[in-house]
């Protein structure tokens, strides 16, 4: 009687332990399977400016280099220090300050094309990594401000220097009235009547 | 050995088990299932050891009780550890069912049961085994959930972290000592 009871209790304990182990295994499996590859998780943390300041062709190649351990986490100025901290937390590495040769951090800006000067050469369209410039040959070009990442890659190829960077003012707190511009004409003393 | 000493020993063993758990977030999330799994594993080892002792008695094996108890509890712990390692290595590691902890629990919780005077009969020893493992599981679950509950208490700074568990363990051990003394 005691032996039967002991065996029954033993079987019950083994069955319950098996249930717990199985549920633990099931919890482990989807967690590992649902995680995207490391390069994708790194790419999601990058600012997607595609500016190439890190020395790579864009954010995704930089993310792939980081995933392979071939580059350091402090080479993305648009991401800022917050971006470095997020990358350090994801990759379980120590925080690194910006490299000495890294370009300086700038506030987010948007390219603006001076429509009177633009000759429609399309060179800026070819340079833009995010297709934020619209236009065609010998037609005026314009920038889609919502798409522009402020990477400044369009500045260098412009032959007439008609592109300038303006601070991105997307928030009401940042918005300011423009100063009035009054055209000043030089008046010769003799001509004034 | 009596229940007045055995029950506080279980408190110390449960605290020791809790302190040997890793302190990362994944281990904290698995603390309660790990506590229940360790309690069930201890129950299996104690039941197996008691069953093998009864089998040895029926086969007429004559050995000193201390030696036989150590051999049976060690054997049951190693048998369970190897079976777990073979059948479910990943979850076993995840739940902290390491063979050293299984061996420690099997010996520390199992050996005094052989010397409890109030558990001399086969049925009473079986109930003592079941009740002690149930209590041990409850203690493990208690220590697994205590840190999260203590964080919500306004404790003094010197009692933060694992140090707060020591007075808790002392209080539980004193309470169980008086209960065990009455049972004995």
Automatic annotation (TrEMBL), chain A:
One of its GO terms (cellular component) is plasma membrane. Residues 109-138, 139-168 form the 4Fe-4S ferredoxin-type domain. InterPro entries: 4Fe-4S_dom, 4Fe4S_Fe-S-bd, 4Fe4S_Fe_S_CS, Elect_transpt_cplx_RnfB/RsxB, RnfB/RsxB_Proteobac, RnfB_subfamily. Residues 34-93 form the 4Fe-4S domain. [4Fe-4S] cluster 2 binds at residues 118, 121, 124, 158. It comes from the Bacteria. [4Fe-4S] cluster 1 binds at residues 51, 54, 59, 76. PROSITE patterns: 4FE4S (PS51656), 4FE4S_FER_1 (PS00198), 4FE4S_FER_2 (PS51379). Keywords: 4Fe-4S, Cell inner membrane, Cell membrane, Electron transport, Iron, Iron-sulfur, Membrane, Metal-binding, Repeat, Translocase, Transport. Its cofactor is [4Fe-4S] cluster. [4Fe-4S] cluster 3 binds at residues 128, 148, 151, 154. This is Electron transport complex subunit RsxB. The lineage of its organism: Bacteria, Pseudomonadati, Pseudomonadota, Betaproteobacteria, Neisseriales.
TrEMBL record, chain B:
The keyword Transmembrane helix applies. Keywords: Membrane, Transmembrane, Transmembrane helix. The keyword Membrane applies. The chain crosses the membrane at residues 32-55, 62-84, 123-144, 164-183. It comes from the Bacteria. This is Electron transport complex protein RnfA. It comes from Aquitalea aquatica.
């Amino acid at each position: 009687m005691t032996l039967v009871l002991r065996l029954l209790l033993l079987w019950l304990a083994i069955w319950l332990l098996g249930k717990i182990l199985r549920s633990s295994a099931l919890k482990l499996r989807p967690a590992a399977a649902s995680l995207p590859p490391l390069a994708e998780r790194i790419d999601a943390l990058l600012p997607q400016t595609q500016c190439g300041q890190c020395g790579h062709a864009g954010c995704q190649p930089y993310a792939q280099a980081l995933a392979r351990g071939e580059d350091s986490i402090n080479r993305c100025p648009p991401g800022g220090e917050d971006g470095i901290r997020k990358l350090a937390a994801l990759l379980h590495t120590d925080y690194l300050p910006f490299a000495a040769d890294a370009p300086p951090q700038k506030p987010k800006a948007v390219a603006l094309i001076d429509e009177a000067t633009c000759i429609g050469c399309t060179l800026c369209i070819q340079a833009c990594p995010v297709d934020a410039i619209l236009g065609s040959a010998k037609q005026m070009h314009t920038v889609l401000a919502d798409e522009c990442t402020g990477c400044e890659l369009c500045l260098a190829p412009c032959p007439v220097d008609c592109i300038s960077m303006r601070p991105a003012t997307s928030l009401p707190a940042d918005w300011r009235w423009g100063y009035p511009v009054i055209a000043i004409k030089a008046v010769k003393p003799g001509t004034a009547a | 050995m009596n229940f007045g000493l055995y029950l506080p020993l279980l408190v110390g063993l449960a605290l020791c088990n809790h302190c040997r758990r890793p302190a990362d977030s994944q281990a904290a999330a698995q603390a309660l299932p790990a506590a229940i799994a360790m309690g069930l594993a201890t129950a299996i080892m104690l039941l197996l050891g008691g069953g093998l002792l009864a089998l040895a008695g029926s086969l007429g094996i004559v050995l000193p009780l201390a030696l036989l108890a150590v051999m049976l509890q060690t054997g049951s712990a190693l048998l369970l550890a190897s079976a777990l390692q073979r059948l479910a290595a990943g979850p076993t590691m995840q739940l902290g069912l390491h063979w050293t902890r299984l061996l420690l629990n099997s010996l520390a919780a199992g050996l005094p049961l052989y010397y409890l005077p109030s558990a001399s009969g086969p049925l009473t020893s079986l109930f003592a085994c079941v009740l002690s493992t149930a209590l041990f599981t409850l203690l493990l679950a208690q220590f697994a959930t205590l840190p999260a509950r203590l964080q919500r208490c306004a404790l003094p700074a010197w009692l933060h972290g694992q140090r707060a568990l020591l007075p808790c363990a002392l209080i539980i051990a004193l309470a169980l000592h008086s209960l065990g003394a009455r049972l004995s």
